[in-house]
Amino acid sequence: MNFEELRERLPIYTTQQKQALAVLSILGIGFSIFLFVTTRGSAIAQESPKPVISISPINSTIMVHVAGKVKKPDVYPLLQGSRVADAIRAAGGALQGANLSEINLARVLNDGEQIYVGSFTSTGSKNAGSTRKFSGVLNINRASKSDFDSLSGIGPVIAGRIVTYRVQNGPFMAIDDLLKVAGVGPKTLERIRSRLTL
């Protein structure tokens, strides 16, 4: 079969038919490109993972133990973000003689925490300008220099050493770790042990 025979077998198109075929071909190619681009873009969008947003419950509760000079010492459920003042209020408030000046009432509470409300004790006679000492229990990992200084047998120098030791070495793991601080001996520790907590 030569070229002439092939040409005779093919249908003869008019100019209008050829133009229509050209337009349809261009439209077909354009539509194919459009489908290729849009399906490829959506496939990429589907492959990318969606970010996971974790939202913690706003009203989660924590448990706080309130003890010492309060009306109703007990363990109380409080809303996350509650303050020390809220815990004392939940325990019915402080009793007369409670030493609230040694407690940061604005501090945010943590789950499982104990709040101990201590009392004032007087030493010396009233006329001799009595000094007031904190008689509550001190958390040795949170107490300040002045807190330690308020303990019997611990002066400002040793109180400063305790705080410095804690800053340099991290939190105390046991009450007996205070023996590692220069100036705190076994007798001193035994005298104040009942006033200390972790």
Profile the largest sheet: 3 strands, mixed
CATH topology of the largest domain: Ubiquitin-like (UB roll)
Rg calc: 40 Å
* Number of DSSP helical runs: 6
* Low-pLDDT segments: 122-134
SSE arrangement, N to C = HHEEHEEEEHHHE
User: Strand order of the main beta sheet, please?
Assistant: 2-1-3
How does CATH name the architecture of the largest domain? Roll
Number of domains: 3
- Percentage of residues in strands: 15-25%
- Class from secondary-structure proportions: alpha/beta
Helical content (DSSP H or I, runs of 4+): 25-40%
- Rounded to the nearest angstrom, the distance between the terminal CA atoms is 104 Å
Give me the count of strands.
Answer: 7
CATH class of the largest domain equals Alpha Beta
Shape: rod-shaped
The chain-level mean pLDDT equals 80
Write structural notes for this entry.
- The protein has helices at 3-9, 15-47, 84-90, 145-149, 156-169, 186-192, and strands at residues 61-68, 74-79, 113-117, 120-123, 131-134, 138-139, 196-197.
- The protein is an alpha/beta fold and 198 residues long.
- It folds into 3 domains: 15-46; 57-136, Ubiquitin-like (UB roll) (Roll); 138-198, Photosystem II 12 kDa extrinsic protein (DNA polymerase, domain 1).
- The strands form 3 sheets. It has a 3-stranded mixed beta sheet, covered by helices on one side. It has a two-stranded antiparallel ribbon with strand order 4-5. A two-stranded parallel sheet has the order 6-7.
- It is rod-shaped.
